[in-house]
Amino acid sequence: MDEPTRRDTLECMLWAGTGLLWSVVGGVPRASLIGTAEAATAAAAGFTFAQVSDSHLGFATPLYNDVAGTTAEALRALGSSTQRPSLVLHTGDVTHLSKAAEFDAAQQIFGGSGLEMRYVPGEHDVIDDDGRAFLERFGRGAGPGGWSSFDAGGIHFIGLNNVVNLQAGGLGQIGAAQLAFLEADLRGRSASQPIVVFAHIPLWTIHAPWGWGTEDSEQAMRLLARFGSVTVLNGHIHQIIQKVEGHVAFHTARSTAFPQPAPGSAPSPGPIRNLPADRLRSVLGVTRVSRVEGNRPLAIIDTPLGA
Amino acid sequence: MSLPPMRRRELFAGAALTLAVIPAARAATARIVIDDYAFQPMELRIAAGTAVTWENRDSSPHNVVSSATPRVFRSRTMGTGEGFSFTFAEPGTYRYFCSLHPHMQAVVMVT
């Protein structure tokens, strides 16, 4: 296989900006390819929001040598499309090494996008300071623990931080203090209000040997069990994996920086190293969600950006 | 002074003169490489007084955190090419992990 040239790579990166449009139909997300008639219909319904994840600003390898470029491209596409989202959730690993220059770059790209942004930290954002620098810049509405909740478009959004105080051999961790916040936050809330929970590490166990799960996610799920529509959006694993369990739809997003291998398919979860250049467009991207009122059957459909 | 096997081999392979100029109190050293989300070797056996250096060769950042309470050692997070050293003065079994990727676990056995 030939090494991809920089020109090839940049052309592929243009595709990173296009992505999936998500509509919450009957309370469950439904994905369609942006630019299609189906996507336009969903977006016309009203409130839409998007998810970006794992921008890893500061990361560079020969194959993934322009993560700032791919991330900025994704944001530009979101901002300029006819389905411009009302809100963009970043599900963590904004930066690669929590460095000031990386946070600066993030503020330029995300802050400069003109889009309404909300963030939760990934483990790469809380290096050596438990996230203080990250939360100072990106923790709008969050306390020192990094969690927050707010309402938008009739949906109740809850941002959780499951990337600190990780224990040897363990998975992501929500912790007692944050579970207490979640319980108080949900108390008295109408069970018919759609809930979107977003956090970095998946809140369901995808692959424990690689740490792809959250130790105490069951406790959080029990608190959410009485709600008719719960959507859980995560990052961390740089690929789309989803499932529906009862009233809960789980979804992990693509990265805007680099892809990781399918669970257990490689010796380690490190970046895919032998990706053919013409597949880059299929592995980077953004996720879009819109809420549609109605009684459509619950359905979940996922479509990749390219072949 | 007890030396780890690698060091001992180097000494035997060298000339007698080389052996003579190494100060008796010079600390032994050992190295652990971090790559592909793993510590290599995962189990290191050394003599007390050995200075261990971890070197991160992975594209992902990692750190080295003692699993004991209280922690015996904790490095800052190392980017690609960065390292950390710790000298094990006392015999014992020292388990550690990467607190960013807690499935990465390893052990240093000091005798």
TrEMBL record, chain A:
Region entry Disordered, spans: 256-275
Pro residues composition-biased segments: 260-270
Gene Ontology MF terms in the entry: hydrolase activity
Alphabetized Pfam families for the sequence: Metallophos
Domain Calcineurin-like phosphoesterase: 48-239
First and last residue of the signal peptide: none
Name recorded for this polypeptide: Metallophosphoesterase
Automatic annotation (TrEMBL), chain B:
GO molecular function: copper ion binding; electron transfer activity
Signal peptide range: 1-27
Cofactor binding note: Binds 1 copper ion per subunit.
Keywords: Copper, Electron transport, Metal-binding, Periplasm, Signal, Transport
Superkingdom of the organism of origin: Bacteria
Annotated ranges, domain Blue (type 1) copper: 35-110
Organism, as annotated: Neoroseomonas lacus
Coiled-coil regions listed: none
Protein name: Blue (type 1) copper domain-containing protein
Localization terms from the record: Periplasm
GO CC list: periplasmic space
Family annotation (InterPro entries): Amicyanin/Pseudoazurin, BlueCu_1, Cupredoxin, ET_Amicyanin, TAT_signal
Lineage of the organism: Bacteria, Pseudomonadati, Pseudomonadota, Alphaproteobacteria, Acetobacterales
Cofactor: Cu cation
Binding-site residues for Cu cation, renumbered to this chain: 62, 98, 101, 104
Chief place of localization: periplasm
